[in-house]
Amino acid sequence: MKTKVLVTGAEGQLAKTINDLYLNNSSDLEFIFASKTDLDITNKEKVISFFNKYKFDYCVNCAAYTNVEQSEFQPDLAYKVNSEAVKIVAEECKKHGTILIHISTDYVFDGKTNKPYSEEDLTNPINEYGKSKLAGELAIKDVFEDFFIIRTSWLYSRFGHNFVKTVIKKIQEDSELKITTSQTGTPTSCDELSQFIIFLISSNLKSFGVYHFSSQGEATWYDLALEISKQFKSYDTSKILSIETFKTRAKRPKYSVLSNCKSNQIFKTDYNWKDQVARTVKSLI
Questions:
Q1: What is d(CA 263, CA 223) in angstroms, rounded to the nearest whole number?
Q2: Confidence of residue 26 (pLDDT cuts 50, 70, 90)
Q3: From CA 177, how far away is CA 175, in angstroms rounded?
Q4: What is the tens place of the pLDDT at every residue in 238-285?
Q5: Mind giving me the DSSP string for 220-257?
Q6: 43 φ, ψ (degrees, to nearest 5)
Q7: Phi/psi at 116 (nearest 5 deg)?
Q8: What is the pLDDT of residues 116-126, one digit of tens each?
Q9: 105: which strand partners?
Q10: What does the pLDDT look like over 74-118, one tens digit per residue?
Q11: Long-range Cβ pairs for the range 279-284 (8 Å, 24+)
């Protein structure tokens, strides 16, 4: 019998990457990808009905409100999706014996350090998005213990809207770019995160808890833009201008690199962010 897996937020870049990986690999896993139209996780009655119908072994919650800037203006919406709805999903997972894999963020930290964050480090989000995501983590922990919370950072992929695709478009238009140097983190490919998620399911791992997962190394957004530009030989990289910061409503952590020591103990990788960026860019041009 195949392991049945629900993936919420099916229109998002991570869910689409998982779907792409699943379609290209035969396995003993059966995925059901649910968009907001299929399953609005903020609607308790619909979530209950959905879980009653399918009886999932795993739920990968990719559904989230991820607009960091807009969260400052609509914190209620951010909390509704990133916290209240997460509790609804967690409660149904507990009821049906479903293992929850929930995607969280480096933005649960304040960035006031100069060394990679471990899972044990104190959280202290400095914007409404980060606060809502942390509230979601706490909601899961309040409900049950059969969960994996994966904190990741600076996701990009071939799908949807993301920084890498935006920069590619600007370079192809031969445009000038102004990119901030005020934040340091780790660009992470949805491909590698998807592989980690599939591993957790396929291995039937029961070492539940919080895990950090990202590429290796660290970069500023400016560093990332320069790395993308290396795949375009005719583009004049002097058009990529570094600026200290943009004026925004939401504060961003200055340093949010995650330590992968814990995840590396169960899933060995040597992913370097530069190699992963180059691979993704080449697939898009």
A1: 25
A2: low
A3: 6
A4: 999 999 877 788 999 999 999 999 999 999 877 899 999 999 999 999
A5: EHHHHHHHHHTT-TTS-GGGEEEES----SS---SB-P
A6: -100, 105
A7: -55, 140
A8: 999 999 999 99
A9: 152
A10: 999 999 999 999 999 999 999 999 999 999 999 999 999 999 999
A11: 279/189, 279/191, 280/156, 280/157, 280/158, 280/164, 280/189, 280/191, 281/164, 281/168, 281/228, 281/231, 282/231, 283/158, 284/158, 284/164, 284/165, 284/168
Asked whether 157 and 168 are in contact (CB, 8 A), the reply is: no
DSSP state of 54: H
Q: Which of 22, 65, 129, 222 is catalytic?
A: 129
Round to whole Å and give the CA distance between 9 and 94: 20
In 3-state terms, what secondary structure has residue 122? coil
129 in active site: yes
Torsion sign (Cα): 134, 139, 144, 148: negative
- The pair of three-digit structure tokens given for residue 51, joined into one six-digit string: 């879980």
pLDDT the model gives residue 271 = 81
Beta bridge partner(s), residue 236: none
